[in-house]
């Protein structure tokens, strides 16, 4: 059994949350462009305008708040989460939601149970979009093991994404965020081992094939356009989560460069850069991003409050666990995940 890791510092909690928001806001103007020129991105970086987020961050904030408010349970309440996601869409429908997502959230908002609503799209198969993966990273902040992170990721996904790939994308990104959060910054990240670990929680041949490609592409230090052609850069989970992983794993100690790489790859730029930004922020902390970026983030205050709430709760829980290592809750949680990390 792997011991519960020490709680992440506030800087890394904020790094995960703010990294997601930064990637989202920096990538958003280029969403859907097949390629992005470096000069275009530099211009956007230097424009000095407020960095406004889209549905990616709006829903990640909902999930982070959901987890923070339920810190004793360390988990996901599907019925409540579905409603909270739907309410966020209803309050700000202009944030750039996918068509399937709008339909599902509309049904949930109207009182249809999520288990039915999530199957009401795409001929009953549900969405394989990256919408569950784009919001999932905060589960890593409360997870006690890699397996726990992946399972929380899947459970947070199923309320809107019934398709297996939509759920696997969330499990994958959640697992990667957990491993990034508990990695040692500055020390070489063992990419092959990390991909192998992810392969144990994302059990699917098509995902394993992507993990193999990521390893090869990193060894060849490919340019963003090449990576996008090899792995995909579209709105599907399988066609975007692997590219976000590559953007992070290829330059895991360079926070700004990870986000730039993801945006330059084109396609679903906001979402791919958001996922990559959450990973690199979790490893390196919020201070690793340029101050000229973080100071312009639309959600700065909300992100800071959530980081305070989540990191204080983790520290309190961690010292409680040291003092009461035999309590039921701790025993159950520790037993919930036996995987490596
Ligand atoms: N069959 C065919 N097309 C599909 C299927 C399917 N089973 N599932 C998804 N698509 P959606 P999301 C396509 O609408 O996952 C925002 O821009 C279909 O074209 O369920 O929340 C964010 O920034 C569908 O419209 O929403 C992200 O980029 C699209 O995938 C993205 O949307 C997205 O799936 C998140 O999307
Ligand atoms: Mg997007």
List its salient traits:
mainly alpha; binds ligand AR6; globular; ADP-ribosylglycohydrolase fold; single chain; 341 residues
Looking at the structure, what is the overall shape?
Answer: globular
Order of helices and strands: HHHHHHHHHHHHHHHHH
Query: Structural class, from secondary structure content?
Result: mainly alpha
Bound chemical compounds: ligand AR6, magnesium ion
| CATH architecture annotation | Orthogonal Bundle
What does this 3D model show about the protein?
61% of the residues lie in helices and 0% in strands. It has 341 residues and is mostly helical. It has a single domain (10-315), classed as ADP-ribosylation/Crystallin J1 (ADP-ribosylglycohydrolase fold, Orthogonal Bundle), CATH 1.10.4080.10. Helix 1 (10-27) runs antiparallel to helix 3 and helix 11 runs antiparallel to helix 12.
In short:
The chain has 17 helices and no strands. With 341 residues, it is mostly helical.
Annotate the secondary structure layout.
Layout: H1 10-27, H2 38-46, H3 55-69, H4 78-91, H5 99-109, H6 114-117, H7 146-157, H8 164-181, H9 191-201, H10 205-219, H11 224-231, H12 241-249, H13 255-264, H14 269-284, H15 291-294, H16 300-323, H17 328-336
Helix pairs in contact: 1-3, 1-13, 1-14, 1-16, 3-4, 3-16, 4-5, 7-8, 8-14, 9-10, 10-12, 11-12, 12-13, 12-14, 13-14
Ligand AR6 binds at residues 54-56, 96, 98-101, 122, 125, 127-131, 134, 163, 235-236, 268, 270-271.
């Amino acid at each position: 059994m792997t011991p519960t890791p020490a709680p992440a510092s506030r800087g890394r909690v904020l790094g995960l949350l703010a990294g997601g928001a930064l990637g989202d806001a920096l990538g958003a103007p280029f969403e859907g462009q097949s390629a992005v020129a470096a000069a275009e991105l530099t211009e956007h970086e230097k424009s000095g305008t407020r960095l406004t987020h889209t549905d990616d961050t709006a829903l990640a904030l909902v999930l982070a708040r959901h987890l923070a408010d339920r810190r004793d349970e360390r988990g996901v309440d599907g019925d409540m989460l579905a409603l909270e996601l739907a309410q966020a869409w209803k309050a700000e429908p202009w944030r750039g939601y996918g068509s399937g997502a709008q339909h599902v959230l509309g049904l949930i908002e109207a009182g249809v149970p999520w288990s039915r609503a999530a199957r009401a799209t795409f001929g009953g198969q549900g969405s394989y979009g990256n919408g569950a993966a784009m919001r999932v990273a905060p589960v890593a902040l409360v997870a006690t093991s890699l397996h726990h992170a992946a399972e929380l990721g899947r459970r947070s996904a199923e309320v809107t994404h019934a398709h297996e790939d939509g759920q696997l994308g969330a499990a994958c990104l959640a697992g990667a965020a957990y491993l990034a959060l508990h990695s040692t910054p500055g020390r070489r990240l063992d990419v092959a081992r990390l991909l192998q670990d992810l392969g144990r929680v994302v059990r699917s041949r098509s995902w394993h094939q992507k993990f193999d490609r990521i390893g090869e592409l990193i060894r060849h230090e490919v340019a963003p356009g090449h990576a996008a052609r090899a792995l995909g850069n579209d709105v599907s989970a399988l066609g975007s989560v692997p590219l976000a992983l590559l953007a992070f794993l290829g330059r895991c100690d360079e926070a700004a460069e990870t986000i730039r790489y993801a945006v330059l790859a084109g396609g679903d730029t906001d979402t791919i850069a958001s996922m990559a930004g959450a990973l690199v922020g979790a490893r390196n902390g919020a201070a690793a991003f340029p101050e000229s970026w973080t100071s312009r983030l639309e959600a700065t205050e909300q992100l800071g409050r959530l980081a305070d709430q989540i990191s204080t709760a983790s520290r309190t829980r961690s010292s409680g666990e040291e003092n009461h290592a035999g309590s039921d809750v701790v025993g159950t949680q520790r037993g919930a995940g036996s995987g490596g990390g």
